[in-house]
Design a protein that fits this description.
CATH topology: Glycosyltransferase
Distance between the termini: 32 Å
Order of helices and strands: HEHHEHHEEEEHHEEEHHEEHH
Number of strands: 11
CATH architecture: Alpha/alpha barrel
Helix content: 40-55%
Strand content: 5-15%
Strand order of the largest sheet: 5-6-7-8
Amino acid sequence: MHDPAWISWKSAFLAADGRVIDHLQQAASHSEGQGYGLLLAVHHGDLAAFRDIRRWTSANLFKRDDALMNWKLHETADRPDPMNATDGDVFYAWALALGADRFNLPDARQQAITIARAISDKCIKCDPRDPKRLVLMPAAEGFQRGTKAILNPSYIMPRALHDLATLARDDRLAQAAVDGLRLLDDLAKQALVPNWAEVDAAGIRPSSEHDHVFGYDALRVALYLIWSGKRKHLAVQRAKDLYDAEMNAETPVVTALITQTVQDTSSYAGFAALRDLVQGKQQPADHLNTDQGYYPATLEMLCRVAARESGPALHA
């Protein structure tokens, strides 16, 4: 709880009422940020922050008819965006489950189960290539194009999905994790993993509706795989090959998929921390530079957790 980096993160991005703020996104708050913040509160043993984040989220991002969160609320908006974002729901439910254990909060555990079952029911569909395989959709609605599905590979967090499957006694969540690893392998066999992909009966490929880049979304794929004990996964190796080839001081953050032409780099420490994690280097000390903004600063915090927790392959 007394980690200087956590204190800095809270001071920069966590409002007194429990709202996680992305100042560079018009001071918006997202379900992803609330999930990340809640998870970091658990890992730093900060019950007060856990309660504050949970209270604000419950009051402001649970306006849907199901148990899923609204994905975005602008500072000046009266109501949040009606859609959910599955990664936000996954991380928030996972954080609730972990917090329930650490802080002895049975009601948090029950809420985690409710959200996990809603994810299974609303956000997991059959893979168009094989009805026996499952895919994790980016949201409960809005990403189906007839028989084609639009996917965000960075929403696949195997460790969280397996933990939620065990908690909720829902095999579909565990299968989505296993099939998600196969899906990421299918993409990594082609090139770097894209920010967005599409899948239909003909196969899987980068999304025709998005730029064909390994960018700010896809950067998290390697983080989640390493965190889940899957450092040897081909998608991690693809990212490592890119980082090993680019020895400049700045870190690649947007790279063309096929040519591996770096289109943008960053000097922010959060992206460097991710590169170091992928390359197997030691994570930085407790200091956190919050001037880099919410997203890279949060990535840096998550990389530190992943470095501590990653080990032999989980759920092999």
